[in-house]
Queue: 2 jobs
Job 1
Amino acid sequence: MKGNTLPSMLPKPVGRQREVLYLPADGHTVILGTAGSGKTTLSILRTLYLSDPCTDHGGPTLLVTFNRCLVTYVKHLAGTIQRPVNVQNYHYFARGYLENRGKLPWGSICRPEERLRFIKLAVHEMRDEGIQSTMLRRSEEFFDEEFQWIQQHGIASKKDYVAAERIGRIATRVARAERPLLFDLYTRYLNQRQQGGKSYDWDDLASAVLREFQLDQEKRRYRHVIIDEGQDFSPEMLRSLAAAIPENGSLTFFGDIAQQIYGHRVSWRSAGLTATNIWRFEENYRNTKQIAQLALALADMPSFPDDPDLVEPTAPVADGPLPALKRLANESEEREFAVSQATGQARTGTVAILFRTRDQEKSILRHLPSEATRLHRSLQQWPSGPGLFYGTYHAAKGLEFDTVFLPFLSDKCWPHPADVELLGEQEAAVRNSRLLYVGITRARSTLVLTYSGRRTSLLPKTEGLYQI
């Protein structure tokens, strides 16, 4: 790369990666890739290329991803970058911009538990006024989920909400006739929140950022924005990031629709990105062919819906053992097995134990050695060398390990009962299947799956995929 020495921990770009790395430094670029295709590595390399002061396109560059744990990992991979480069998660970027604009008073973002309380107050307000509807009997969690959908798609009026097609869900869970009343409830929630001294929640921060950029006549801080794990970003987040660059700037989107686990399920096109050519990375450089075959079989199941942006990977050439599938007597044995096996293997490689829920994560904590690293937003420095990691599937997004243990894959945990109750069986199966895909594809060479009782129906039953 001109004017730059590649960080030693990053592999050199190969094949089509080199073409994408040096694409024009203006406008919108979309790269869709399968798991293990080098998207995060390439996002770092493109960041270095676009920020290179020795070029005519060089300028301040923002590399933004979804969770803070991945930010720490990306900084570790990138090494010390002596450039006008910032690596941030989206909400850090959003808060910083709103604060700079004088639009973020201290304590003005409501926490999730406060959000549910404001929703409950809005429901009681409507009931106290004598409004009768069976819809008002639904749980605060149901309204919370629906309000997220409204906010993440930037819907600002009752008319737009009524007219909206439910492209973010498999089925319409709110009848069109009920939407005016539900939007009234949403408006009352916003009023309750404002009265409680909270101007925002985490889902409408992006709309606030977009509004400010539309009013902001000052020079943009960043000339280039690069989005890693872009499938996790809501449409409003993407719109706000597109508004953050000047006319001669660039936005580069890296994403994998198969790993879209937060329920947005919308095309990047609906967010207004205007890329003319879509680049697709089918090569899987991370997983062995045995692990990739299991991931492919999972993606072929009915619970994995088709999507025009889904990239089907080519089979990797790296060989390895079949994923191990073990049935144990109970969850206690699963914990003991995962900890003993993972601790031993962590002496010579990176090993992760991943969980569907935080409660499962907590249940294993006292059994782990003290030096184990928790995958969490508070992780400030990425450990070098071999070691043991643990955390949720969500926290492991974008990461990779030599060996991955996935315990508790029973039918009572997958799909998660709370998801089934809130979303219905079909939608819960979709989201949990994609989450399971994320867990499987974190493993480079060794994958161990365990369950007690009956194994989840989300796992493929094809013979020859597992060693049992």
Job 2
Amino acid sequence: MINQIRIQDFSAPELDVYARMSEAQLLNREHPESGCFIAESPLVITRALDAGFTPLSALIEEREVPAAMQILERLGPVPVYTAPFDVLTQLTGFALTRGMLCVMRRKPLPSVQDLCGSARRIAVLEDVMNPTNVGAIIRSAAALGIDAVLLTANCSNPLYRRAIRVSMGCVFQIPWTFCDANWHDTLKRMGFTTAAMALCEDSHSISSPALHGAEKLAIILGTEGDGLSQATISACDYTVKIPMAHGVDSLNVAAASAVAFWELTKE
């Protein structure tokens, strides 16, 4: 039996977490143990539950309750707020959620060493600040054989709503964590060869045998526009460039990540 609570007023305080709290408030940097995130759509919520995240409450359109009963029962005794469609359409973007939202508790993040100890192919995102790009890169990483994803401190958080949505819940299917400024030294000590995706004259081909033959490879991707910092490029073992045609100089970082992951995870 679900704990169903009907709401008819958009200003109801129960809707604050869904309608009026910012991503920063949800993250709760001062008290990370209380941080939460919002999963959108039955598919994404299911993937989060499968990954062991704890639900705090759910919000669903009334007419969707019967069809979603299997998922709702998995939530346990948490409040399940229901409302008519005309109330929920006042929530920005609710039409994109396929009728259901769920607030979930964040988990403590693993260390780089724990995350990458047994990994062979990882991705490192340096200052990728657009949540759409973060979500798309993580979706490609999960689909194309990357073992883990590291993010520098200035990256958008993978549990921001847009990143989760764009990833289709793949942020719950591939291990990831944030890393400190010494990430490159940490990876070198762990035996990783580092390959910077950058537009440099001395870049190696993405099909280079040296890259494919690396026992442990870290693929480093930079933010849209500026790309990787020169310090990062200089510190890496290789710079790698995807061949372009028709005078195009580069791909969007999310598209470039998919090409790189596909090629560099080949045996």
